[in-house]
Each structure stands twice: as structure tokens, then as C-alpha cells.
Design a protein that fits this description.
Layout (H helix, E strand, L loop, with lengths): L1 E3 L6 E3 L14 H40 L8 E3 L3 E4 L2 E11 L14 E11 L5 E2 L4 E4 L4 E3 L16 E2 L4 E10 L5 E6 L7 E6 L6
Parallel strand pairs: 3-13
Antiparallel strand pairs: 1-2, 4-5, 5-6, 6-11, 7-10, 8-9, 8-12, 12-13
């Protein structure tokens, strides 16, 4: 092992009796103390690195396991039924497929089929809370995010909008998904909650 000379700073062998650069004699006790401190510093840095990597790996695995959860492993609800998870309540009132948003030729067509979901979100907490993101999950466990085209809907609900305590918001979430599959709306108890629930979506063909 190489350590620094306390006099000139040159790197010397841990077995040397004196520094080959400046000639100072190595005091054994002082030398061993320095070796110990250098080793402790190295191990401390390594431990911190392993700890940080372990924390990152834990959250990556947690997010991955949540995104690939089968619909059968989460409690399910039906449309028209009020769902309370964490500090948030949801009620899905209607859902339907459509090939357009406004029904005119200027609309950008969907890649699959537009799926509209009309629902109410309520903050049951005693402080302002942010609306969590919405996802659709099919029978195979595939997860779909809401469409960025949702801003074109006047009464759309946007994830990350804030709701004051005991305040509700009714609106529409838009998805662009393959047509004809069985879908569940995945709702969350909020960013500080680990609870999720699924609402069994039964969309009409057109509106």
C-alpha cells in the first residue's frame, strides 16, 4: 500500500523505514495511524456509494413492480362506484371510444383509438393535494399513460393540478390506446400513499 509522507507529501511504501525523497524517518505509530485513517476514509466512501446505489435500485424495482402489476392483484371497482384510496376519492361516470376529439376533419387522428373517461376526483385531505397521474392497464398487464392531446378538451383533468381540501373536480381524461381490449383505470391514493385501485372501464363505441 502507498501512503503520503507527512513531511514532503511524496507517495511511499507502507513498508519503508524512511522517505526516499526527503529522508525523514517514518514513525511507526504515526505511520500506522495514517494508514488506518486512509483505509477508513476509503471504506467510508465505498459504503456510501453502495448505500446510494442500493437506494436507487430499491426505488427502480418498486416502480417497475408497480407498473407491471396484474389487474387481478389490485382491488377492483365498477363504473359509477366511488373509490377511495389514500386521501383521494374517484368516481367514473362514463367512458367512450372515438376516432376524433372535436369531430371535425382538422383533428389529429389517434394512433389507436381515443378513449374518453369522464370522472370526478376529490381531495379528502386537510391540505392541498396534487392530482396523481392516471394510467390504463389491460388484461395482459400493459400500462398506458394519458394522451398529451387531452389539452384540446375544454374540461380535461390534468395530472399535477392541485385540489384544495374537500374540493372535487369533474372532467375528462383522454387515452390513445388499441381498440377492443379490456381496460382498467388505475387510480392512486396520492404521491404520499402506496395505495392503488382499479376501475373496470366499459366504454361505449362512439359519442
Amino acid at each position: 500500500m502507498l501512503v503520503k509522507c507527512k513531511e514532503c507529501g511524496s507517495k511511499i511504501s507502507s513498508k519503508a523505514d524512511k522517505c526516499p525523497n526527503c529522508g525523514i524517518k517514518i514513525d511507526e505509530k504515526s505511520f500506522l495511524k495514517k494508514v488506518y485513517l486512509n483505509l477508513s476514509s476509503t471504506l467510508s466512501g465505498l459504503f456510501k456509494t453502495v448505500l446510494v446505489l442500493g437506494i436507487i435500485l430499491y426505488f427502480v424495482m418498486k416502480v417497475d413492480s408497480q407498473s407491471n402489476t396484474s389487474p387481478k392483484t389490485i382491488k377492483q371497482f365498477s363504473q359509477q362506484e366511488t373509490v377511495t384510496v389514500g386521501y383521494t376519492s374517484y368516481a367514473v361516470w362514463d367512458s367512450w371510444y372515438s376516432s376524433s376529439i372535436r369531430g371535425d376533419s382538422l383533428d389529429t387522428p389517434p394512433n389507436g383509438k381515443y378513449l374518453f373517461i369522464r370522472l370526478t376526483v376529490r381531495n379528502n385531505d386537510s391540505q392541498e393535494r396534487t392530482i396523481p397521474p392516471f394510467y390504463l392497464i389491460d388484461d395482459s398487464g400493459n400500462q398506458y399513460s394519458s394522451s398529451s392531446a387531452g389539452w384540446r378538451i375544454d374540461n380535461s383533468i390534468h395530472a399535477l393540478d392541485a385540489l384544495n381540501p374537500n374540493v372535487s373536480q369533474e372532467g375528462i381524461i383522454l387515452f390513445d390506446v388499441p381498440f377492443g381490449r379490456k381496460y382498467y383505470l388505475k387510480v392512486s391514493g396520492g404521491f404520499w400513499s402506496s395505495e392503488d385501485a382499479l376501475v373496470n372501464i366499459k366504454p361505449r363505441l362512439e359519442k
